[in-house]
From TrEMBL:
Pfam families for the chain: BPD_transp_2
Transmembrane residue ranges: 30-49, 61-81, 88-105, 111-132, 139-158, 178-200, 221-239, 245-263, 291-312, 324-343, 350-369, 375-394
Protein name: Xylose transport system permease protein XylH
Top-level taxonomic group: Bacteria
Membrane topology reported for the UniProt record: Multi-pass membrane protein
Function description: Part of the binding-protein-dependent transport system for D-xylose. Probably responsible for the translocation of the substrate across the membrane.
Single annotated GO MF: transmembrane transporter activity
Predominant location: membrane
GO cellular component, one term: plasma membrane
């Protein structure tokens, strides 16, 4: 077999459409439907209220997505093996409470309290994974028990007052309040992102061509790079119209990209996808099932802790965990709406970014329109249900069943 371009030049458009249909038939929706839906959503809200696409609102939106978005990234890992983590909201709240108690009440330096809070999330994830992988307790049961237990521990740590205020000028507070005011920072990163993508895609093309494997044509890589560049520079331009690039958004995008590389470019990532395709098949292929199960729940716990700290940073305080169920549902909805399958084996960390943009855009747009909270929950629930139905229909296709 000789190497060939995935899509011949003249049939480039048809090839792209065929590729989209193939992905859908295999149960993988991809980013395109979500991106198109997001564009429509933004257009509708802008028509109804011309403040929606203002630089101020979009900048605030880019920071608001980070806390829940980080939790959603962790959920993606668990969904990829066909499981679910119900404890993420409670773990995030507990991590924030532990940070506040150590830093504010005990006087521990912020950086050390932050590290310990994140490590606590990893430890909790490992504990959940241990009971799931070693004792065979369903992950949904283990993490449901965690949801209740960690909520109770958070209430205990916060004490009678139920609230601990953070230093508004401290390290954690600056996670969501610091902006790079120099416009060169945003534009430089907007140029760096497409450049890295092009170099990685071109290197992969050369490697595949040398190995006589199907490879993408150069012009398709250029088109994809151009599309990323347009989005990146448009985002940089809008952010620079307000206060510049938010540090929170930069951290979020870097973590999403790094974890995407972990999943798609490393042996560990391939074992996660393999396990999502079937436990027995993965075991026979030499996958260390127990270790992978524990590790994905550790990732979920770590990202939940980080997300909880960013959410606390946004309001510079930690309070009783009254909204953990809503946080869990929003994070889960973000992962699923973004394109991660509830049935395992399909999804990427970028799914969480796209999904949380949809969720937070709905919240922001409806807040500008003064839509009451009850209706907001119903609309968000409807969007989540639609995403799950589409995922289920895609998984029922013959090609998808054959792959599973």
């Amino acid at each position: 077999m000789t190497g060939r371009a995935l899509v011949p030049g003249r049939r480039h458009v048809k090839g792209v459409l065929d590729d989209i249909r193939r992905r859908l038939s295999e149960g993988e929706r991809g980013a395109l439907p979500v991106a198109l839906g997001l564009i429509v959503l933004w257009a509708v809200f802008e028509i109804l209220n011309d403040n929606f696409l203002s630089p101020r609102n979009l900048s605030n939106l880019s920071v608001d997505i980070v806390g829940t978005g980080l939790i959603a990234v962790g959920i993606v890992f668990v969904l990829l093996i066909g499981e679910i983590d119900l404890s993420v909201g409670s773990v995030g709240g507990l991590a924030a409470a532990v940070f506040a108690v150590l830093n504010v009440n005990q006087g521990l330096p912020e950086w050390l309290a932050l590290v310990m809070a994140v490590l606590l999330g990893s430890l909790i994830g490992a504990l959940h994974g241990f009971f799931f992988a070693r004792f065979g307790v369903p992950a949904v049961v283990v993490t449901l028990a965690g949801l209740l237990a960690w909520n109770g521990l958070t209430l205990y740590l916060l004490g009678q007052s139920g609230t601990i205020n953070l230093d508004s000028d401290g390290l954690v507070a600056k996670l969501t309040s610091y902006y790079f005011n120099d416009i060169a920072v945003a534009y430089s990163l907007a140029a760096l992102g497409p450049a890295v993508f092009f170099l990685a895609a071109y290197r992969d093309r050369r490697r595949r061509k040398a190995a006589a494997m199907p490879y993408r044509p150069l012009h398709e890589i250029v088109v994809r790079t151009a599309a990323i560049a347009v989005v990146a520079f448009a985002a940089a331009y809008v952010l620079n119209q307000f206060q510049g690039l938010p540090l929170a958004l930069l951290i979020f995008v870097v973590l999403v990209a790094a974890l995407d590389l972990l999943l798609r470019r490393t042996p560990y990532g391939r074992t996660v996808y393999a396990l999502g395709g079937g436990v027995e098949a993965a075991r026979r292929a030499g996958v260390r099932v127990t270790w992978v199960r524990i590790s994905v729940l550790m990732v979920s716990g770590t990202m939940a802790a980080l997300g909880g700290l960013f959410l606390a940073s946004r309001i510079t305080s930690v309070s009783q965990p009254s909204g953990t169920s809503i946080l869990l549902l929003n994070a889960l909805a973000a992962a699923v709406i973004g394109g991660t399958s509830l049935f395992g084996g399909h999804g990427r960390t970028w799914s969480a970014l796209l999904g949380i943009l949809v969720i937070q855009s709905l919240s922001s747009g409806m807040a500008l329109l003064s839509v009451e909270s009850a209706l907001q929950f119903m609309i968000t629930g409807g969007v989540l249900l639609a995403a799950v139905v589409l995922d289920s229909l895609a998984r029922r296709s013959p090609n998808s069943r054959g792959r599973t």
